[in-house]
Amino acid sequence: MKEKEQVVEEVQADEMPEITDEAPEAEAVEAEAQAAEEALAEWEKRYTRLQADFENFKRRTAQEKEQLAGFVKGDVMKDLFSVLDNFERALAVPTTPETKAFLDGFVMIHQNLMAMLSKHGLAVIEAVGQPFDPNFHQAIMRVESDEYPDDTVCEVLQTGYTVDGRTVRPAMVKVVHNG
């Protein structure tokens, strides 16, 4: 009978839950989960920062590319200024019946050239009658005039130009000084 009692005890012992350290395991799992969530949050922050840095990089690169293109365009336009100056000198010649057709052709070519260049950002600096601005004008002479107030441009000696709003050649001007 002892055997029977011993077997019953063994079975009862097997059926009885063993007292274990489940609480510490649950805490460890919970700590791991919390650590994983913190790591995920940190990676999300890094990802967001990297994404913002990349967007800033793209924007900055596009701006630098645009600036560089503007400088290159300005340099190419500068090479054409002597041609434009020669056109202006030719157009300033008095017209005679013999030269009228020739000068009309010059005017047409000059207008076509200016239209093409203005399409690419070139603009003439308007100076006569404007207040002197060292950003756009280079004063060569100061003259007296009853027609214009002080510090006003009264004559352009050489046309100035801007490319996309940036001065590439200031206008050489005479400025009024009634003093």
From TrEMBL:
It is found in: Cytoplasm. It comes from Veillonella magna. Residues 11-20 have a biased composition (Acidic residues). Its main location: cytoplasm. This is Protein GrpE. Residues 26-67 form a coiled coil. PROSITE patterns: GRPE. Gene3D superfamilies: 3.90.20.20, Head domain of nucleotide exchange factor GrpE (2.30.22.10). Residues 1-20 are annotated as: Disordered. Homodimer. Participates actively in the response to hyperosmotic and heat shock by preventing the aggregation of stress-denatured proteins, in association with DnaK and GrpE. It is the nucleotide exchange factor for DnaK and may function as a thermosensor. Unfolded proteins bind initially to DnaJ; upon interaction with the DnaJ-bound protein, DnaK hydrolyzes its bound ATP, resulting in the formation of a stable complex. GrpE releases ADP from DnaK; ATP binding to DnaK triggers the release of the substrate protein, thus completing the reaction cycle. Belongs to the GrpE family. CDD domains: GrpE (cd00446). SUPFAM superfamilies: Coiled-coil domain of nucleotide exchange factor GrpE (SSF58014), Head domain of nucleotide exchange factor GrpE (SSF51064).
